[in-house]
Amino acid sequence: MTLTLFALGVYTAATGSGLACQAQWPLCSDQLIPTLTINPDFIEWFHRVWAMVTGFLIVGVAGWSWLGSRDRRTRIAATLAVAILPVQIAVGAITVTIGGLVPGGYTVSTHAAHLIVALCIFTLLGLTTMWGGDRPPSARLLRAALGIAVGGILASAVFSRAVPLLTYSPGGQAAFYVAGLSAHLGLVAALVVATEAREGGVGGLAPATASTVRRLAAGSMAALVATLLLGRDLVLYTVAWQRLNLVALALALALAAGAAWVLRDSDATTGRSTPVGGD
Predict the structure, then answer these.
(1) Are 232 and 115 in contact, with CB atoms under 8 Å apart?
(2) What pLDDT, on a 0 to 100 scale, did the predictor assign at position 147?
(3) Positive or negative torsion for Cα 246, 250, 256, 259
(4) Which regions form coiled coils (predicted)?
């Protein structure tokens, strides 16, 4: 739901629909529900409805983490996602209503804050899932996570404004963020598993190998976040910024692929498949 909300938000902004609804919130052009046809009002309204439902589900996840007696880190991640949710709602509401009247209310910094807070919520939900799930961390899960990361970065490159293959249309921008955030989630999972392996919690993975994978995944994540930020109009997108974006994208791919290669090389060195969990 949050991944889809991210894509909807990007599409809404890219089509200019965020300034629809006659700058009203929560109403839209003096209506609770606008005309159900594909128009700017409907796009902005649908984004708001999806955000509202997703927000309630995020609160529900936090409640589940406490009522289900999950461990401390799971409860903290889920609770932090709820704690910063009002900030995201407030920034969004100000932007589409009185943004032009509030100092800094409709500026690059506001859009950057909206994007960064959304990314934080998405990451916290990813951590909640990884820490609160019933599946134990394993070498198999680490390989899958890195595979998703590499595949997601490659897919995002197809739609990225750094690689002039396709027009950076609203639909293309939404696809870029779906692919990029999927890769980001894969890297979050890789960091979680590699960290536990380094601490001796995953069978079949040497601590040194886990540490290398962890560093490479962290570097890939940092480069990928840079491309996600440059995917929005946060800077005057000159040729220099395009080249920097391309370098960041290539670095993210190289580091994620390197982490996968280190893990594969470790399996080859042992001469057998890495055991899963405690098997």
Answers:
(1) yes
(2) 96
(3) negative
(4) none
Please report the sign of the dihedral spanned by the C-alpha atoms of residue 56, residue 136, residue 201, residue 268.
negative
CA distances from 145 to 44, 45, 75, 183, 203 (A): 34, 35, 23, 9, 17
Hey, what domains does the chain have and what are their CATH numbers? Answer: 1-134 (no CATH), 135-279 (1.20.120.660)
Name, in order, each residue with C-beta under 8 angstroms of 177's C-beta and a sequence gap of 6 or more: 6, 7, 10, 228, 231
Tell the burial category of 136 from Cβ atoms under 10 Å away from its Cβ (0-12, 13-18, 19+): middle
Weakly modelled stretches of the chain, pLDDT under 70:
22-24, 96-107, 199-204, 265-279
pLDDT (tens digit per residue) in 8-31: 988 988 887 777 776 667 777 777
Q: How far is residue 141 CA from its own chain's centroid?
A: 19
28 contact partners, CB below 8 Å, separation of at least 6: 20, 21, 22, 34, 41, 44, 45, 48
Q: Which amino acid belongs to residue 168? A: Y
Q: What is the pLDDT of residue 210?
A: 87
3-state secondary structure 118-160: HHHHHHHHHHHHHHHCCCCCCHHHHHHHHHHHHHHHHHHHHHC
The pLDDT tens digits of the residues spanning 49-80 come to 999 999 999 999 999 999 977 889 999 999 99
